Amino acid sequence: MKQNVRRGQLNREYQENPDAGFSLLELLIAVTILAIIVVPLLHMFVTSTRINVKSRQTLRATTVAQDIMEGLKAYTLEEVSTQFEPPEGMSGDSFHYPSDGFYIVNSSMIQGGVRDLTEYMDGHVEGDEIYYFGIEDLKMQGGEYDALIRLDASAYGANSRQMDESGTPNNPGATGHDNEFNGKFYAEIGSVAEVSGGGDEEAMKTDSSYHESKKLNEAVLKDVKPQIEDDITAAGGTLPDDWDDLKPEDIITKRTIEIVLEDGGDERCKATINFTYDCSYTYGGHTYTYTSNGHDGSEGGKVVDVSRTFSSGNFYLFYYPIYKSGLVDNIQFTINDAAKLCDKEHPLLKSITLAKQIRSTVDVDANVIAPDLTDAELWSKETAYRALVNVGADTSMDGNLVFRTNADTNMIKNASTGKRDTIGGVMYTYNANIAHHVDQCTFSGNTTSNKVTNIIYDVEITVYETGAAKHFTESNFEDNDEVHRLATITNMNQ
Q1: Biggest alpha carbon distance in the chain?
Q2: Are residues 220 and 348 in the same domain?
Q3: Which of 159-173, 283-297, 361-375, 464-478 bottoms out in mean pLDDT, i.e. has the lowest?
């Protein structure tokens, strides 16, 4: 009877709550389903966090490498090497704190020191123009890093080769290509010190320069071509079939480069640079004429009243000649306030360097500088090159101005004599009242170092987690478990 009563009670409870007695099973099922869903999500969150942390670390390390790269760009290879030499009385066998002559990065951020590591690197051969330098415990970007710097000047020295279209050296002789950019002819003007060297007052004085853009001619074409189109269209004409093939040399008839040098205040000299192109185009029996300074944008830009100031007294103009029959490059230096600028006791203007350049491109695959023209082509164009270079002043000068140039020198050696010819088509003129105050010379002349320096080189910078530097002197140091590479950049991908 009691059993029946109990059974009836249970039946009533079940009818009132059909889920009674099954909550634990369903809970287990729910927990299992939740686990199946949540576990992958948690893994995804953890993985994403790790990736973000690594990305931030890589970005910071890349920024550190870029900062080092910017510091290196201010110096020749020899000047970089000097900065990694240990201070007097300190051994070079260990890292040392940078001396007062270290300017590649702020030396206060280097806690562990710097070191020349060239002799320790695998494959190093004395005189191969490849150098290695280390920086230990560099505190930048909120972190601590070690850095390894590789500088390679070998690709631009005596063993460089001009390449043909297939990438094969077309002059594979043992003496190398005459256009080695670290060769004496190109490097003897030395380094342009546009960054203060620090130290005493004289060392802190800076040079200044203007480098003509390789794309300036294209900028002129981009500026003038739409004007020609408008004029032809307005005259009711139609564009010629070869219009898209129009080149800068097809329209440029004259170029004038003007450099005005004057008192810049604060014991500095100021240079103002202008490039002006006269252009013409004949079509349909009519000749259209234009004047251009270039075009706003990436293709060279406009060169109008470009200003440079410098305190060393040394100004450099690097330019590319225009090779076109009948065209004369007009290059005019005008010295205002000449009595003050060229004062014999306290000159603000000591030297002007006019440096003619060879148009070239960097062949990344072949790791060489490849001139745009072959030796034969360039020799021919250089032989026919015409230029008028004038140095004038508003008054007689008290001091002696050094005017250094290669404008009248054929950039390629004569095949028959093996020497560089003097170009008869380049003439120099000076105001009568200043002529005896100007000392014209070549790159190897007055105030020029006789030492040939490596002025161009490839750079590779690798940044590691701090602690890697102590293994830099070991063979195959990156195989060490304590060495963790974070980022690598080169000047070829900047």
Answers
A1: 142
A2: yes
A3: 159-173
Amino acid at 59: L
pLDDT in tens, 365-404: 666 677 888 888 999 999 999 999 999 999 888 888 999 9
**Partners of 489 in beta bridges:** 461
In a domain, 339, yes or no: yes
Burial of residue 230, with CB atoms counted within 10 A of its CB: 0-12 exposed, 13-18 middle, 19 or more buried:
exposed
Query: Which DSSP symbol is given to 83?
Result: H
Looking at 2-129, list the stretches that DSSP marks H as alpha helix, in order from N- to C-terminal side: 2-16, 23-72, 77-83
From the list 117, 97, 95, 96, the residue with the least C-alpha distance to 107 is 97
Dihedral sign, Cα of residue 375, residue 377, residue 378, residue 380: positive
Residue 229 to residue 244: CA distance in whole angstroms? 11
What torsion do the CA atoms of 472, 475, 479, 483 make, to the nearest 10 degrees?
A: -10
Question: For residue 251, how many other CB atoms are within 10 A of its CB?
Answer: 23
**Number of residues assigned to the chain:** 494
pTM (2 d.p.): 0.73
The pLDDT tens digits for 472-489 are: 999 889 999 999 999 999
Structural domain of residue 305, as residue ranges?
Answer: 155-441
Pairwise pLDDT comparison (159 vs 483), residue with the higher score: 483
Residue 404 in any domain: the answer is yes
- CA 411 – CA 297 distance, rounded (Å): 31
Pairing of strands 438-441, 401-405: parallel
The whole-angstrom separation of Cα 420 and Cα 187 is 16
Residue 155: DSSP 8-state = G
In angstroms, rounded to a whole number, what is the distance separating the alpha carbons of residues 56 and 33? 35
Q: Do residue 45 and residue 182 come from a single domain?
A: no
Buried b (16+ CB within 10 A) or exposed e, 435-465: eebbebebbeeeebeeebbbbbbbbbbbbbb
DSSP secondary structure, 331-376, as one string: EEEEETTHHHHT-SSS-S--EEEEEE---EEEETTTTEEEESS-HH
Give how many domains the chain has, as a whole number. 2
- E strand intervals along 117-207: 130-140, 143-152
- Cα separation, 453 vs 129, in Å, equals 11
Cβ neighbours of 196 (radius 10 Å):
14
Shared domain check, 342 and 234: yes
Q: Looking at the domain assignment, is residue 265 inside a domain?
A: yes
* Residue 182 near residue 153, CB atoms below 8 Å: yes
Answer for the pair 340, 263: CB distance below 8 angstroms, yes or no: yes
Which of 412, 413, 398, 406 shows the shortest CA–CA distance to 440? 406
CA-wise closest residue to 82 among 102, 108, 62? 102
Going from the C-alpha of 319 to that of each of 49, 277, 334, the distances in angstroms are 52, 14, 17
